[in-house]
Amino acid sequence: MDVSIIVVTHNSVEPVARCLDSLARHAPACAHETIVIDNASRDGTPEMIRDRFPGVRLAANRENVGYARGVNQGIRMSTGRAILVLNPDIELRDDAVGHLLASLDARPRAGIVASRLVYPNGRLQHSCRAFYTAKAIILRRTFLGRLFPRAKALRAHLMTDWDHETPRQVDWVIGACMMARREAIEQVGMMDERFFLYFEDIDWCYRMQHLGWEVWYEPASTMVHSYERSSASMLRKPFLLHVLSLLRYVEKWNRLSWFFRRHRETLKTAVFVCADLVAINAAFFAAYYLRLALQARFVYGLYPLDWYRVFILFSSLVFVGTFAFSGLYRVQRGTHWTEESIRVARAVFLVFTILLAATYLGRIRIYSRAVLLSQAVFSIILVAFFRRIVRIVHRQLVRTSFDLKRVLLVGSAKEAAAARRLFTADRDTGIDVVGAVTGEEGSLCAIGDLSAAIELHKIQEIVVLPSRHERELLVSVLLHRGKSVPVRIASPLAGLIGQTARVDEIGGLSLFSVGGGGGGAMRRLSARCLDVAAAAILLVVSCAAWTAAAIAGRAPRRRRETRFGSNKRAIRWPRALRADGRDASDLLNPTLFVYLLTGRLALAGPPAVFDTRDLPPDPPAARPGIAGRWRYAGAPDARTAIEDELLAMRNRRFTGDLVTIARSLRVMAAGRYPDWFTQEVER
Q1: Residue 562 in contact with residue 572, Cβ under 8 Å?
Q2: What is the 3-state secondary structure (H, E, C) of 545-573?
Q3: How many of the other CB atoms lie within 10 Å of CB of 236?
Q4: What is the pLDDT of residues 401-419, one digit of tens each?
Q5: Rounded to the nearest 10 degrees, what angle do helices 309-325 and 264-293 cross at?
Q6: Residue % of the chain over a pLDDT of 70
Q7: Predicted model pTM
């Protein structure tokens, strides 16, 4: 197949009909196929295409996935050696496609070629342009462009000082019509799907040129483009999409943005320090005015607020210093709010102890101990809350494709493709895979060229995949990575050794040393105390909830199943089932918490299984858990879940149990269990 023609539509039934009609009238002589991606049109576009153009391959999406994603969907469906992307409001003339293909074939380094576009009245459309500058953006996006239509920056951007009658290599071409070489797409990648609409074309052309491909304007090929500047009105949604895409483009490629992203950890630390200071001082004022409101209950009076100025400054410094010492400014993505809240509480307790000791040893009597204690309580709440808000805002930015971390993979082509799919599937990772160093065809660069590639492609992190763990290669990566680019080494061992591992040097060997984790009598005693305390509270709540459900006639049906823990002891597992057969909330199952109180179950532990053959060989004995990673982590089967849980139990401390339990609360309240837990497998 020579050419695959891709048209992405959304509520454009009349324009796309004219486009496909013109394609039928001026069909290229070369082998070609036409693919239409419809983004959830409600104007009858899919039905019209099926009726009038049965030879067109149609993919009708249930939702509007955006222009770039629609084009990529078409590229994946295509088979041609050249990909022609057309807007639905394009109409072909003469042998326009043939001229484009001839131009592409005549220039081996041409990654993209584009037609000369004209309005329906024959007037030239400035479809090839120079890259944006700050002046050009201001003139194009504001009324200033109308006041100064002959401004030098605007003329340079639109290339109006050239007659557009000869072929020319250009910076970029608008996406209404662009033919891309498949070989170039395979190396550069498809359109960036962070751009829902607008700027995906300029980004594609920019990336093409980064990797040595050329972008050409071909006037021998002429097409009609019924172009409407729908993004020009500030009151319309297209304008907002245009601005959003512009910000994404600037954030991705601007040098100042690159500087900030290279120092993102410092900036994030500064944001958290500022948020903590606001929370800490808000906590102090809340504590002070609470103490003032309760003055009638105290013997001694409260000193004026002015007397606390030095204390406020001193306590702020102690808070920030203690938080830094406790590792609260080593900001990591994916930190669960429960884990962070526990670490904040520990750090605040330490600060409270320091401040209390300082005021006592210094014999400073003007500072109220009640204010200190209240400030500590409020600080835990407000610091955790403010940090939670910061993380939520950042997560939303990442989900809208801002602050993505540009990552270079080092590994085999197969590994790199698998890793790219994993990162792409989970938007919360915030990872933008730039490319891969594979040592094979299509590799972004050689190891020796890493430093230049990092600068050229604005790479922020390198991930070395398991097949490239040879010492010589790792040393080469570390030597050529530049000054501020961290390297992560992907290994299946990472999930096994936990966060307590350290590196030791013994007899010339570098060894991972994995500590005993949370083992020991004190660990077991603290876990049992937690179980009893939680059981006492949850049993009361569960009995009340079950009674209320029974009064309302919605009490769940009870059932007991014989299951086995990792110690291979049988247990009659209590289940509470709704009328439709699904599991009810754990809070409607008091027997679970009776078992927890009597020690037959643990609050956090491995799951109980139907068959001992689901247990790993010779597992360590552990009581089955009501909660655990297996409730929310998505393990594919019982054995994997048990192995993961037992390893996690060995590596985590008491606070790790609290985090695991807190993360399980939502699924416990909803009564959600993994499928393999509720469905007995026939053997």
Answers
A1: yes
A2: HHHHHHHCCCCCEEEEEEEECCCCCEEEE
A3: 12
A4: 888 888 999 998 888 888 8
A5: 140
A6: 93
A7: 0.76
